[in-house]
Amino acid sequence: MEKFVARKPEKEVISMRILTDTLAVLDAKAASIGISRNELINQMILFALANMDDPGQAKAPPL
């Protein structure tokens, strides 16, 4: 049986501007799911990148 190895993925702190109404929706969705806003945004970005119709680009890494 393969052994479990815990890993902490590398992340970089960035800043972004987002519409106030969009932020309110993100916060509500994250709260209803029980995850942080940051984690929700990361998962949404990975999903969007993995599902883009862009044959010239590499797929995003899995969640």
Describe the model:
- With 63 residues, this protein is an all-alpha fold.
- 44% of the residues lie in helices and 0% in strands.
- It has helices at residues 20-33, 37-50.
- Helix 1 crosses helix 2 (37-50).
- The radius of gyration is 15 Å and the shape is extended.
Short structural summary:
The chain is mainly alpha-helical and about 60 residues long. It has helices at about 20-35, 35-50.
Set out the fold topology.
Blueprint lengths: L19 H14 L3 H14 L13
Helix pairs in contact: 1-2
Radius of gyration over alpha carbons? Answer: 15 Å
Uncertain ranges: none
Topology pattern, helix = H, strand = E: HH
- Helicity level, as a percent range? 40-55%
Q: What is the overall pLDDT average?
A: 89
Count of DSSP helices?
2
Straight-line distance between termini: 23 Å
Strand content: under 5%
Class of secondary structure makeup: mainly alpha
Biggest beta sheet attributes: none
β-strand number: 0
**Could you say which overall geometry the principal axes of the C-alpha atoms support?**
extended
List keywords for this structure.
63 residues; 0% strand; mainly alpha
